[in-house]
Amino acid sequence: MMMMMTATISDLAQQAHRDLAQRLGDALPAGWRAAYDAHPRHLFLPDRVWVRIEEPLDRAADPDRWLAYAYSDDSVITQLHDGAACSEHGYPISSSCSMPAVAFTMLGHLDPQRGDRILEIGTGTGWTAALLAHQLGDDQVVSVEVDPVVADTARGNLTRAGRRVLVVTGEGAEGYPPGAPYDRVIATCSVHTVPYAWVTQTRPGGVILTPWGSTFENSALLRLTVDHRGAAVGSIVDWATFMRLRTQRPVIPAEPEDFDTIADRGRTNVDLADLLGEHARFGIGLRVPDCRLSWDLGEDGYLSTLWLLAPDSWASVHDTTVRQTGARRLFDEVINAYSWWQHAGRPHRDHYGVTVTAEGQQVWLDDPARP
Ligand SMILES: C[S@@+](CC[C@H](N)C(=O)[O-])C[C@H]1O[C@@H](n2cnc3c(N)ncnc32)[C@H](O)[C@@H]1O
Questions:
Q1: N or C: which end of the chain has fewer CB within 10 A?
Q2: Same domain for 268 and 200?
Q3: Are residues 38 and 119 in the same domain?
Q4: Structural domain range at position 146
Q5: What are 342-355's pLDDT values in tens digits?
Q6: Percent of the chain with pLDDT over 90
Q7: Is 191 close to ligand 1, i.e. is its CB under 6 Å away?
Q8: Residue 3 lies in a domain
Q9: Do both 293 and 151 map to the same domain?
Q10: Ligand 1 in reach of 195 Cβ (< 6 A)
Q11: Across 126-214, where does the E strand assignment appear?
Q12: Does one domain contain both 194 and 339?
């Protein structure tokens, strides 16, 4: 009888796991390699994932592609529409396993030390919680997840991985007071306003690391240090684009019905390519609240129409023609903010910082005294 040599799923998974480590290179710091090896990512993923919103990928139907996706340096979508069957239900992507390079970059910025207590906001699959627990010990990590189904699945994943991390089903903006004080708080969903509960639950000298940004441009990673006066102060240390904390999601604006007929018309000669540069967008977003940016591309792949959308106002720019309608003149607001950004010396994203106190959040440029 002829023996066929076939690779098992676990051989293939081990190879894919090693290959991803190699591709990550320095993005996987040496100090986190043992945690990475102890917790293979595919063990935290459900059998059905989504490559894109419209594109489910079932492990049974295409195991090779499923495994390749599990070991891509990409976030893996694990839940749509908050788990609702209906695609009409708002926010399309509602849970995922973080992109490995970003997860390890964040863990590097978090820089937890032996003996630290960690609060994670947004358990997702439980993979980040497992990496933290491997590094610091199961009892040192608490993770809060708002979605009960996601939280239950994460508990199962963590238990199968041999971890005894406390996963709390609850509102992440409230932290988890029974586990406080924490040395480190890490959010793996993004906020526009840092919840003050995270500050009060972090010991003086402790660190809060969170994706942060405006409705216009949600792309920053903020690292704050808590001081003895009950304030947290820090700056943008990297880029990171994450799904929103559910309680801070922007309102999805409705499409204006007769936009073309009711909108005011004007002209602009502004350089849209410059205005849409990542640092300009970030600065503009800080001064134009609750405004979404989107665009249509032409057949040539270049920008055709730029859209600015708020719950009660809309604007578009096509060639040099500007159309605006609603309670706000969104394009005028954007142009004013863009001109502020130019006069401020075209600051990069990492020049901004944030101070969070019981009174609220203040954003500053270069110096906490320069709001
Ligand atoms: C990008 S995923 C987290 C990825 C996770 N760290 C992992 O390794 O799989 C973000 C998670 O934040 C959760 N989330 C969103 N809003 C939340 C809230 N208000 N409180 C707690 N969790 C929240 C989402 O349900 C989602 O599971």
A1: N
A2: no
A3: yes
A4: 9-248
A5: 999 999 999 999 99
A6: 85
A7: no
A8: no
A9: no
A10: no
A11: 141-145, 166-169, 182-187, 202-212
A12: no
